[in-house]
Amino acid sequence: MDIKNVFSNNKKWIAEKLASNSNYFNQLSKGQEPEFLYIGCSDSRVTAEDIMGVQPGEVFVHRNIANLVNSVDLNVMSVINYAVRHLKVNHIVVCGHYFCGGVKAAMEAKDLGILNPWLRNIRDVYRIHKKELNDIKDENARYNRLVELNVQEQCINVIKNASVQQAHHQRGLLVHGWVFDVHSGELIDLKIDFPKILSEIMEIYRLE
């Protein structure tokens, strides 16, 4: 696509929004009160707003390769803190997707340079769940199961966060794990049991 088309597309988008609501941008400029924080993959095929059917201002979005929540990544930690303590979101979603390139790369014995320390987090997920994953003979099925387990482990990493623990007790904030199926368009709820996970990790990770 010619980059010049982006600006012509932008003008069309503005016209469409104003045609349906002449105050659209006035309302948009008043601020945001999102109900959700969405932590997803940077994959260009997957957008939070489209698959959730939400409008601008309804979801606060953070994306990185393979939707990781790493405690030493100040970017994602700052996003979580801001979303929970300042925007007062009530739901945090970690959303992966089947056939994720980052997860696939982590399964391969290759030196990927600067990506190595990032993808090591996914290899750690594989190590934790090695028995289950190695028992899956079909490579694609094993690959997609690792996508699900990675989402699960990233949800646990979210729950370790002090602001998340406090918000859960103060206003009932919940953490959810989803997977987007790129073949069907279906959004799958992994039914992460937040209270159960929290109770299991509190001996070590209680921070409130």
Describe the structure in brief:
This protein has 208 residues and is of the alpha/beta class.
Can you describe what's shown?
The protein has 208 residues and is an alpha/beta fold. The protein has 2 domains: 1-30, no CATH class; 31-205, Carbonic anhydrase (Beta-carbonic Anhydrase, Chain A). It contains 10 helices and 5 strands. It has a 5-stranded mixed sheet.
SSE order and pairing:
Elements: H1 3-20, H2 24-28, E1 36-41, H3 48-52, E2 59-64, H4 74-85, E3 91-97, H5 101-106, H6 116-128, H7 130-134, H8 139-159, H9 162-171, E4 174-180, E5 187-189, H10 194-205
Parallel strand pairs: 1-2, 1-3, 3-4
Antiparallel strand pairs: 4-5
CATH H level, superfamily name of the largest domain = Carbonic anhydrase
Question: N-to-C terminal Cα separation, in Å?
Answer: 49 Å
Any guess at the CATH architecture of the largest domain?
3-Layer(aba) Sandwich
Beta-strand share of residues: 5-15%
Per the principal axes of the C-alpha atoms, what is the gross shape? Answer: globular
Number of strands: 5
Can you summarize the main beta sheet? 5 strands, mixed
Strands in their spatial order, largest beta sheet? 2-1-3-4-5
Task: Quickly list its features.
five-stranded mixed β-sheet; Beta-carbonic Anhydrase, Chain A; 208 residues; 2 domains; 5 strands; 10 helices; alpha/beta
